[in-house]
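Closing statement on the 2-deoxy-2-amino glucitol-6-phosphate sub-project.
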Amino acid sequence: EQIKKGSYDHFMQKEIHEQPHSLTTTMRGRVKDSGVLLGGLKEKEYLKTIRRSRRLVFIGCGTSYNAALAARPFVEELTGIPVTMEVASDLLDRQGPIYREDTAVFVSQSGETADTLLALDYALENGALCVGITNTVGSTLSRRTHCGVHINAGCEIGVASTKAYTSQIVVMVMVALAVGSDQISTQVRRQAIIGGLSNLPSNVSEVLKLDTEMKELASSLIDSESLLVFGRGYNYATALEGALKVKEVALMHSEGMLAGEMKHGPLALVDENLPIIVIATRDACFSKQQSVIQQLLSRKGRLIVMCSKGDASAVCPSGSCRVIEVPEVADCLQPVINIIPLQLLAYHLTVLRGFDVDQPRNLAKSVTTQ
Ligand code: AGP
């Protein structure tokens, strides 16, 4: 086992640091200057069927659900097709409507999650086109879906999913580029994102340099009882996923929250003790996040702000927040960058709190029972 971990102490740590490589293999042979080529969607004109769909339904659990949520804004923008989000168990509990005119997109690292597979059976019975996005070649998900894309992130061993999350987002961005490739009006935007994908592994290497800074941050949070993470837009999913990592491995209560909902309840929790991470990197929501930060500071909030490089004084003019500066990339790829400091934070918090990183209490890598 130690040989497989190489110079790392834990699989989670290794898998976090592997991301420049795993993202490269996810994109290998698929991202060209001229566009994106996804072999798994080429046959039988699946792309055309997806384009004609009345709705895309993204279905998954845990981190895989969060990856789909991160991709949703870009998929809607590039395809013009509305996207509905479904946690697999909730879709089953409600027996929510799925139609023949829907494309159901199933996201699962293992391809063996019981709820996701049952939701797949349900969508197949209801006549939807079923697309699988998984890391596991030959898994039940890849065998039972009509078509799909493997994320090719390499074997993930740590129970906490890290490199699969970033590869899932990238695959969904590539799917959006492929589905939207017939639209002339989005050509310039598509080209910009393709350029951004090519540079993504080097930007990920850059953000991984925050490791020591995240360890220091973790040591300042070690005794906290709770940690809130506020995000919105592309980075609402980052808030949910960052909080999921913290609670899953560091065994600390943590909640990801939609910053737009702050005044509708969460604001009551704010005081000088509760640590709050606010994600405020550059995108269309930036000025709204600046005002969220001001409102939190006026309630004496203990803030840690994640911002784009060079933006420290723009997000926190008073200098009273702790700031994490990350490289700025295309808005729809920013969640891939922004989750990495939070993965590092969760990892270091776990080690410092003395918990089992790779095998968290009560959890299994793949949840194969309901
Ligand atoms: C991720 O850190 C979790 N271990 C968990 O939420 C996981 O993502 C979920 O169980 C879904 O697994 P899957 O991707 O294999 O379907």
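The radius of gyration is 20 Å. With this model delivered, the sub-project is considered complete and its resources will be redirected to Aim 3.
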